[in-house]
Amino acid sequence: MPQPQLVSNTGRTTWWTAFLLAIIALAFRLCLMPYYYGWEESDYGNLAMARGVLESGFRDYDMRHLPLYYFLSAAVLSVVDDTILATHIVSLVSGTAAVIFGYLLAREAFGQRAGVLAGVLLCIQPELALYSASSLREPLFTALVLAGGLALIRRRDLLSATATGLSFLTRFDSLATNMVVTFAVLLRRKGGRTSPRVAILGPLAVFTLFVAGWSAYCKVVHGTFLFFLPTVEVNIETGGAQEITERLPFILHGLKVAAALFFVTLPRHLSVVVWLLAFGAMVRYRRDLGRVSARGTLFLYLVFNTAFWLAIGFVGQHEPGHNLYWKWLYVVIPFWLIFAAGAAVAVVDRLRNHRLWAVATAVAMAAAVGWSFAAETARQLNMSARLYRPQVELAEWVEAHVPPGTSLIFDNIPACYIDRRPHEWHFLSWFDLDIPPGDRGALARLIAREDVRYVLWFKEDWTEAPVIAPYLAEPVPHTIGRYRLEPLFHEEEYGFIFYAVKPRPTEAQEP
Q1: CB-hemisphere CA count at 13 Å for 305?
Q2: What is the b/e burial string over 312-333, where b = at least 16 CB atoms within 10 angstroms of the residue's CB?
């Protein structure tokens, strides 16, 4: 008599596929890691914040950056005692988990072949690969969102609510997107032992616990329940919206930015082929948007997360090519890849009676997507090495040559990189200097008072350096009171100058 199978062949195939995709994703990300110097300032700021959370005993969290990524990184840091390794472990594991969850979601909605194709695309898409080889929180956020979606499709509602609630504690975007999708699906779901209105009570309680808990923490520690305001204000202030005072021009410019994001930025990072396939799938399956099904649920996730990304562009109005949009795009990408995979399988299936055409079409799509992904990955690797490696090398020079205990006006990526571990240097930030703009005498008095030996100047206005000390913009020796600032390192593209502070020669005259 044959024995019953504890695991079906289908289930065994699913888990073996997930395991192989995880190996591919891990291997690719580990290969990228030595050559990738980060996305921008956030990579290095996260190092300092993770270290700060550990040193505070897991009590101190920045209100502008929700706590889960830093809590997990600090927990790993307490074991490995290496901040770069700890933050990279959290991102790497999360990014790999996102690949697995994306494969399972595509399989639920479009079948095994689409699932495998989506999994491969998730392994090699530039942002998904590069940013999970760095110290960004977006891989964790995306893994939790996808896990919540998978649990929701499988009717594990409390598990879904927990994963989605944790995604809120990573980025508060979920409050306006993924939590809303959860409620929309639960309210439209029919059948089962409870009514839809009763079914939402458990997830509602979970969401309330997470949101109210973080809001209460912010009130106690930072003095406000409105945890989202600092982030919103910063993104508006650094974008182009604050320059437009009238309503109609603001709306028109916002629509222009959103259109550029959708029709230019999105195809560039997804590849035109993936963008067209996914868009075609959305048109073909548009009626599923109102249905409670795997495909309909994924469609809702795609629409809400894409709309939120476009809304950020509409309100903040950064230049459409700004790399902030690439980071915010991270959670949107898996849903587009899943629908593109479903459409690609459908296209090949329609040509199954014309085998040569089917093979040629599949090869052409694969070649176009592969070339696009490779080109974008190479572009971002090159940009990272040009802009951020010099700043890491400067920080390493300071660690090797500047005696501990020295005071420096030192900020941004180099300071955050050194802050990855305890040290005895005294860093002064341009943000904290109480100096009138353009006042050389005030800077000279601060140098004397704090015994500053080195000054790091940046050309970007947001760093406050060119606002306070515009006279340091040229990489030449400068006389500041009784001091002479001599440039040691100068990098033009990102724009920084590193000065050594020396006593002014007695024969020098005041300018």
Answers
A1: 28
A2: bbbbbbbebebebbbbbbbbbb
Residue 500 has phi, psi (to 5 degrees) of -95, 135
Nearby residues of 43 by Cβ (< 8 Å), 6 or more positions away: 134, 135, 136, 388
Distance of CA 6 to the CA centre of its chain: 40
Q: What is the dihedral of CA 28, 33, 34, 36, to 10 degrees?
A: 120
- Tell which residue, 21, 15, 5, has the closest CA to residue 125: 21
pLDDT tens by residue, 199-217: 788 899 999 999 999 999 9
**Cβ pair 349, 284 in contact under 8 A:** no
What pLDDT does 145 receive? Answer: 98
The answer to whether the beta carbons of residues 51 and 420 sit under 8 Å apart is yes
Distances, alpha carbon 327 to alpha carbons 127, 137, 263, 310, 321, in Å: 8, 10, 17, 13, 12
Q: Which amino acid is at 189?
A: R
Tokens 């458990």 label which residue?
202
**CA dist., res. 178 & res. 174, Å (int):** 5
The tokens for 173 are 């975007």
Question: CA–CA separation, 349 vs 344, rounded Å?
Answer: 9
pLDDT digits (tens, 9 = 90+) for 149-162: 999 999 999 999 99
